[in-house]
Design goal:
By secondary structure, the chain is of the alpha/beta class. Strand 4 and strand 5 form a beta hairpin. Helix 1 packs antiparallel against helix 5. The longest helix has 18 residues. The model has no long low-confidence stretch (mean pLDDT about 95).
Length: about 200
């Protein structure tokens, strides 16, 4: 009961946060109390900012197609896995590239306090890191070729947990076009499916 109360207080603090002046919209989170598996993405896109639901558009369709390969449908995944991100608000568009702006260091640090609080409360056994930025923040590895396809052990907010990295499922990403990268991604999915926390989370 104490954990539920702490988690509820955390979600209230998170959804009321307005600490970053250059982001757009309000914080987005897929809150699941008592989750033992967390997923950490980079940041919401414009569609997620509108719907207040993480991975609600093209990247989400691709991500959940990967989860369906593990026998888990989108609705069940959302019900049982806490979905967070390096920052929780849409950063806006990058004027030069036309893609979503990469969060700056101050935004990452401010929102990192929310991620730390979630890790402290939920005590996850497995964290699925999606994309380069999440990998860098959780295990200190920015190159996907060095992060995907392996089990990593991480410590943050006083908790120790396993991290498995997936590439970002954005349609803009070409990383999976290389055969060797696709092989690494399949190994990450295998590791996720075989992890005891994932198996227990989706046990029927």
């Amino acid at each position: 009961m104490v954990q539920h109360a702490s988690f509820t207080n955390h979600i209230e603090l998170l959804t009321a946060c307005a600490a970053c002046p250059n982001v757009l919209g309000r914080p987005v989170v897929g809150a699941v109390a008592d989750a033992r598996v967390m997923l950490v993405g980079q940041a919401p896109g414009p569609h997620e900012a509108d719907s207040r639901r993480p991975f609600a558009y093209t990247a989400g369709r691709r991500l959940f197609s990967w989860m369906s390969d593990l026998g888990v449908d989108e609705a069940t995944f959302r019900e049982r896995v806490h979905i967070s991100a390096v920052i929780r608000c849409f950063p806006g568009k990058d004027a030069k590239s036309g893609g979503d702006r990469v969060p700056d260091d101050e935004e990452i640090a401010r929102c990192g306090a929310h991620l730390d609080r979630e890790i402290t409360i939920l005590k996850p056994k497995l964290v699925i890191a999606v994309g380069t930025l999440a990998s860098q923040q959780l295990i200190g590895i920015a190159q996907l070729k060095d992060a995907v396809g392996r089990m990593h052990r991480a410590k943050r907010a006083g908790r120790t947990f396993d991290v498995i990295v997936l590439p970002h499922p954005s349609g803009r990403s070409t990383w999976l076009n290389k055969r060797e990268n696709a092989t690494l991604m399949r190994e990450s999915l295998r590791l996720i499916g075989a992890h005891p926390a994932f198996a227990a989370t989706f046990a029927k």
